[in-house]
Amino acid sequence: MITLLDYGAGNVRSVINALEFLGETVKIAQNKDDIVSAEKLVFPGVGSFGNMIKILNNKNFVQPLKDYLEADKPFLGICLGLHALFEKSEESKEVFEGLGFIKGSVNRFDVDLSVPQIGWNGINIKKKSGFFSNFSGDEKFYFVHSYHVKPANDDAVLTTTDYGYEYVSSIQKGNVIATQFHPEKSGENGLKLLKNFVEDNRSNIPEISSGNTRIAKRIIACLDVRSNDRGDLVVTKGDQYDVRDESDVRNLGKPVELARQYYVDGSDEITFLNITGFRDFPLEDLPMIDVLKKTSSNVFVPLTIGGGIRDFTDKNGRKYTALQVASEYFRSGADKISIGSDAVLIVEEYLKTGKKTGKSSIEVISQVYGNQAVVISVDPKRVYVKDPNDTKHKVIKTDTKGPNDEEYCWYQCTIKGGREGRDLDAVTFAKACEDLGAGEILLNCIDKDGTNSGFDCELISAVKEAVGIPVIASSGAGCVEHFSEVFEKTDAEAALAAGIFHRKEVPVQSVKEYLQDKVEIRIK
Ligand code: 1PR
């Protein structure tokens, strides 16, 4: 039996799913006695350090946790569960004391790279440990964080990882282990790691290693989901956002089955977009929540879900907040939520007033769940102009001229699935979203969607240069070469595709095989 410490924020569902998948029984610690009597304790965490310590204090968990750690009983901390072991963190403005089990602090990344670090990175093993039984040390694990631990000495350092510089990515002190990366989201290797912890394996222990680790470019399969005319939830795919054939909505498969397939094929993440979410209300769309629950029970890479995340008043006058919708998604197994239309309206208001209200969905959800959990999905389309002075928007000089030989264009944000263009350009928009607390941009492009003609590298470069958070390039992938092109021509951290995967024209494995000796990627 594993006892799981759920302090009430973030996606503990993923950890429970992974442990149950391994055949374990998981008990949630409800009170301090559950911690005292635990045989093996897992402390997963997402969110912010200050919020976590506050909750641990309110629940009177701090002393029992300290006693548990001092007794050297088996403990696995994940992400914030690692940070909690240290004395303090730069993340909280107020001074909160951590558990102080390890001397040192938690510091923000001070790098010239995108922060948060999101993606699959490697490890250098600094201590021989049964935790890595049957590993070679070359594997990659899933990281998502803006802060990392800085122990006062090397005694407990189990692994290090490079992201701009070398930092500590896991620690071990006796039976207490904690990782910055997420085993529960690290595919088969992550499951193997959890198994080593659960079974206390100590065979085939890898040697101490050194070198530089590198973060992988991510390949993401995206499933646009909606109901067809018969009411079945299907994965669909449009051409420039038009998902209908003469008869019905295009049906390219079942969401849960396809997601599992892409996981097995090596997709680094899975994204679900409820493409009619702007019209319907997700909490009334229980099938979508069911899709998430079922998928997260056997897909162990990060899951993002978007569509309909906004404040909403139903026909009976009952009000729901965007945070409630997002929380339901997180509880059902999502690791990140993505906001589309609502983000455009929020940014318009923010640019008009120059003030953050602290109440928008982007701000509220990132405060509670951390900015790494908030993706902004934007649907821009090109507006061509003859002369840059013809518009107040940021223009680029383009190699793809407009219908009247225009050499300049700007990228107009749209809402409601591309149906409504707004007076806002995608570059300004992305920057404002970052200011408001978003952790990542999912950059679609209506002109390219479903065309198989390659990504819009001009758009991607323009947005990437404007923001310091990761950018996922999306729309237009038609062959394996398009993925190497987007990574060569732009600094995008990830590339997302839909149609070529659903139509089985190019499987995920082929993309990975092709990229293998060209860019850093994760091989399963
Ligand atoms: O506005 O918060 O409710 O969110 C709605 C979400 O649904 C947004 O993220 C929006 O991008 C998405 N969406 C709305 N309508 C459509 C549509 O297609 N009619 N799909 C839609 C967006 C675009 C991509 C697609 C890539 C790759 N899909 O995600 O998967 O373009 O396609 P490709 O590789 O086949 O070219 P809200």
Main traits of this protein?
binds ligand 1PR, alpha/beta, single chain, globular, eight-stranded mixed sheet, 16 helices
What does this structure look like?
- The longest helix has 13 residues, at 187-199.
- The two termini are 29 Å apart.
- The radius of gyration is 23 Å and the shape is globular.
- Helix 7 (255-265) packs parallel to helix 8 (286-296) and helix 12 (426-436) packs parallel to helix 13.
- The mean pLDDT is 94.
- An 8-stranded mixed beta sheet has the order 2-1-3-4-13-12-11-8. It has an 8-stranded parallel β-barrel with strand order 14-16-17-20-21-26-27-28, surrounded by 9 helices. Strands 22, 23, 24 and 25 form a 4-stranded antiparallel beta sheet that branches.
- Helices cover 28% and strands 25% of the residues.
- With 524 residues, it is of the alpha/beta class.
- The chain contains 16 helices and 28 strands.
- Bound molecules: ligand 1PR.
- The site of ligand 1PR has 32 residues, from strand 14, strand 20 and helix 10.
Kindly state the mean pLDDT as a whole number? 94
Number of helices: 16
User: Can you give the helix content as a percent range?
Assistant: 25-40%
Arrangement of strands in the largest sheet: 2-1-3-4-13-12-11-8
Radius of gyration: 23 Å
Class of secondary structure makeup: alpha/beta
Instruction: Please report the distance between the alpha carbons of the first and last residues.
Output: 29 Å
Rough outline: globular
| Unreliable parts | none
Number of strands: 28
Query: Which sheet architecture does the biggest sheet show?
Result: 8 strands, mixed
Q: List bound small molecules.
A: ligand 1PR
Strand content: 15-25%
